[in-house]
Amino acid sequence: MIAKSKLIQDNRGLLSVELANIELKAPEFVYLALENARCPKAEALVKAGDRVLLGQKIGVRHGPFFDQNIHATVSGTVVGFEKHGYRNGKVVNTIKIQNDFKDEKDPSIVERSDEEVAKLSREEIAEIVKDKSMVGLGGSSFPTYIKFQTKDPINTILINGVECEPYLNADQRLMEGEVDKLIKGMHLLQQAFGTKDCRICVKEKHAELIQELKVAFEEDGGDLAVAPMQNFYPQGWEVAMIETATGIRLAPGELPAKKGIIDFNAASVVGIYDAVKYNMPVYERYLSVQGDGVVTPANCKLRIGTLLSEVIAQCGGYKGDDKKVLILGGPMMGSAIPTDDTILSKTITSILVLNEHPVEEHPCVRCGSCVLSCPAGLEPVNIMNAVKAVNKEAIKALQPLRCIECGLCTYSCTSGIRVTDYVRRAKIIAKL
Amino acid sequence: MEFVKETSPHVKRKDNLNWMLLDVIIALAPVLICAFVYYPLDALRTVSLSVVTMELCEFLFVIITKKSWKEFKLYNFLSALISALIFSLMMPSNPGWESGMGYWIVIASAAIGIILGKLLFGGFGQNIFNPAALGMVIARLGWSGLMANNTPNFASDVMAGATPLEFGKTFSNIANANLFDLFMGRYPAALGEALSFAILIGLIYLLIRRTIDWRVVVGYAGAFIALALVAGIIVNIKLPNVSFLKFTVYQIFSGGFLFCCVFMITDPVTGPTTSPARFIFGAFGATVAIFIRFFAAAPEGVAYGILFANMIAPVLDYPQWASQKWKKWHWITLGSLMGVALLVVILVFSLKEGFVA
């Protein structure tokens, strides 16, 4: 088939299943990663046997140009240090804390009064957000305070609630359940950036949610708005979202702030509000557990630092004897991890347990479906051929660095070739 | 529990290469059936000989390169079958069966077509030239006398003896042509390329199934019809009894234009991959085809058009300038191609003494 792919087919019949809402039991132990993908070095400020409180600073990660605090997500006793899998598939050092189930808050967690919050400047908010190690909760884990430090004048704030990957609806759940905090968080952003234009981007197909948000915004005073988004994938990509919401198409590599736009993930907005108002770092988040390889697919609220195997067990365990693909994130962009002995960090939006469906690879027939589908306007098939030919000039000319790894080229490939892998290789070669 | 390590994405669109190839065969079926109805024995001989030859070449190639017959996959079989069917449908109904030359011609040109056009480049997916078009051209060049040997097995009132293209080389003849016979393929021609109605059924099927890219079809048909229309208008001015509409329709339904437009120029392997390039690719193939049809000694040029277009496909896909977005050079290339072609057609048709007669 020579066709552009815009909607992701639901070949496993997963979208028809209404997700159960389950209460996860608070974990007996939590494991907090010391290092992570952005910060290769870290130090712990606690030792085995120490008592820690919820929200207490227990370590610092050192990134290339910033430090990130590590906060306890339960109150209890530090057991020691253990190695566990991380979302990128690597093994990291973690601080193991035994939960005492009291959720006793650290003395630093003091609520600010509304008057205090209203007086905060953008720099002060950035400082708080940095101190609470807020990062983009949509999966990018980009430090949020850096966004607050932009020098460009901001006219428009967009809240990304698109969640364009199929099978996910943790953000939808969040927007339904935390409308209050969302609205207050949006006002906080308006205050920080000195603009009234603040819109939340939600897919058209969530008509009910849009209606709810509109009513809530109306009651609130009416200076917040909903920007309906189209249903295609990848509508949640910054560039596509900004284009649909404002009509402005960013040039490749251009930061939205240059056009006076800044965007935040919906979960991040709630996180920023919690950090500013309650001085509370992110210690739990909404999460979808989905897939044809798990007994009870469900939505739940997860305590950060829980082991993946424990969450799966609470969702009824694995279904069937097929080999499983274990994915953190969505089916299009999420990475498959080698083991379920993996800790769940705050940037994980969902867990997918899919039964393996091997795809047979055939020779490329140059049908061009990947070229038609590529949202970045690249030619994945030509990039693949250039990689196969190890032709560095051709690879550079094809600009693989503009690729956002949305996965549509592999998804739409008639011959079942993993085109995205070739483009990833081209990105590495192009950087050399 | 065993976990599979795979890279993202983890879901796959529901489509399959084998289905894509099978679709082409399904689309060829109406043409094939009509060919068997119109020329039962000739079609049987040509089709079976070329299918066996091409499948055998493909099979030997797989054994030589992959060292195992198990590597002869369904797509190998289907793609060779498609090439063989297209090749045989473009052959004349009687390339000399009586003298025995016909058998030799079919086998030799089918083998040369698939070996030179496809296998030498690395087989399925690697070829630069359309194997069927190449085989056809080899047969035309090698045995041009026999290639014109189209004997109809039915009564044709208007164009007895000559193919419509020879008939139509004298433009005033077109006024007497029966367009319905033309549309039904009831005139001496190659086995399958004259069966316009059956080809159009295949076109609709392929477009619905999205097996071919409409951009190539639009580029090819658009350029062809535009050039034929301009030529028709000049002919109409000079010969008032030949209406320009009838002239254009005559050009569309005679010769191999429709067949190539649906089954040959649309072969994705031998074409470019970006959308603007596909329009240019199609327009170029049509321009070459119509130039040969109007200005060359050979009666028909669509197969040459395909091969020439195949040659420029890698140029259009050259990484330094290929782009999925319409760039300035796309417009300049397409514009100058069509501009020059129209200019040549207008000048020759209106100025050359005795050309329109």
Write the layout of secondary structure elements.
The complex is a heterodimer of chains A (432) and B (357).
Chain A: E1 20-21, E2 29-33, E3 41-44, E4 51-52, E5 57-62, E6 67-71, E7 76-85, E8 91-99, H1 114-119, H2 122-131, H3 144-148, E9 156-160, H4 170-177, H5 179-193, E10 197-203, H6 207-220, E11 224-229, H7 238-246, E12 261-265, H8 266-278, E13 284-290, E14 298-303, H9 308-314, E15 324-328, E16 335-336, E17 350-355, H10 369-373, H11 380-388, H12 392-397, H13 408-412, H14 419-431
Parallel strand pairs in A: 1-14, 9-10, 9-12, 10-11, 13-17
Antiparallel strand pairs in A: 2-8, 3-5, 4-7, 5-6, 7-8, 13-14, 15-16, 15-17
Chain B: H1 17-38, H2 40-66, H3 74-90, H4 101-117, H5 131-142, H6 144-147, H7 164-169, H8 179-184, H9 196-208, H10 214-238, H11 244-253, H12 257-264, H13 275-295, H14 302-316, H15 328-351
Helix pairs in contact in B: 1-2, 1-3, 1-9, 2-3, 2-4, 3-5, 4-5, 5-14, 9-12, 10-11, 10-13, 10-15, 13-14, 13-15
Give an account of the 3D structure.
- The complex is a heterodimer of chains A (432) and B (357).
- With 432 residues, chain A is α/β, with parallel strands linked by helices.
- Chain A folds into three domains: 20-107 and 282-355, no CATH class; 114-278, 3-Layer(aba) Sandwich (Rossmann fold); 369-431, no CATH class.
- In chain A, 29% of the residues lie in helices and 21% in strands.
- Chain A contains 14 helices and 17 strands.
- Chain A has helices at residues 114-119, 122-131, 144-148, 170-177, 179-193, 207-220, 238-246, 266-278, 308-314, 369-373, 380-388, 392-397, 408-412, 419-431, and strands at 20-21, 29-33, 41-44, 51-52, 57-62, 67-71, 76-85, 91-99, 156-160, 197-203, 224-229, 261-265, 284-290, 298-303, 324-328, 335-336, 350-355.
- Chain A has a six-stranded mixed beta sheet, sandwiched between helices. A four-stranded antiparallel beta sheet of chain A has the order 2-8-7-4, with no helix packed on it. Chain A has a four-stranded parallel beta sheet with strand order 11-10-9-12, with helices on both faces.
- Chain A starts with 19 loop residues before the first strand and ends with a helix.
- Chain B has 357 residues and is mainly α.
- Chain B has two domains: 17-150, no CATH class; 161-188 and 212-357, no CATH class.
- Chain B has helices spanning 17-38, 40-66, 74-90, 101-117, 131-142, 144-147, 164-169, 179-184, 196-208, 214-238, 244-253, 257-264, 275-295, 302-316, 328-351.
- Chain B is globular, with a radius of gyration of 21 Å.
- The termini of chain B are far apart.
- Chains A and B meet through strand 15, strand 16, helix 11, helix 12 and helix 13 of A and helix 1 of B.
